[in-house]
Amino acid sequence: xxxxIDYIECSNCKKEAVFDYYYKTGEGYIHCxxxxxxxxxxxxxxxxxxxxLTKEDWETKEYTKxxxxxxxxxxxxxxxx
Length: 81
Ligand SMILES: [Zn+2]
Description:
Layout: E1 4-9, E2 16-22, E3 27-31, E4 38-43, E5 58-63, H1 65-79
Antiparallel strand pairs: 1-2, 2-3, 3-4, 4-5
The structure holds zinc ion (ZN).
């Protein structure tokens, strides 16, 4: 599967981020090496044809390093008695 690598401005820290775009499916991944920002737009339902896809068949995952830290803290707190 072919993909195109492009460089865009990170929406989190405004530095340079990598945009990996799969032109056959339209899926895209953004990763910023400066701040750890990550965003993925992927198709959930791979059984459908591209022309039959609706908004519900797409999934957007997004997180930053800050969010990861918060999730880790919640995990640690829940383990405490
Ligand atoms: Zn960034």
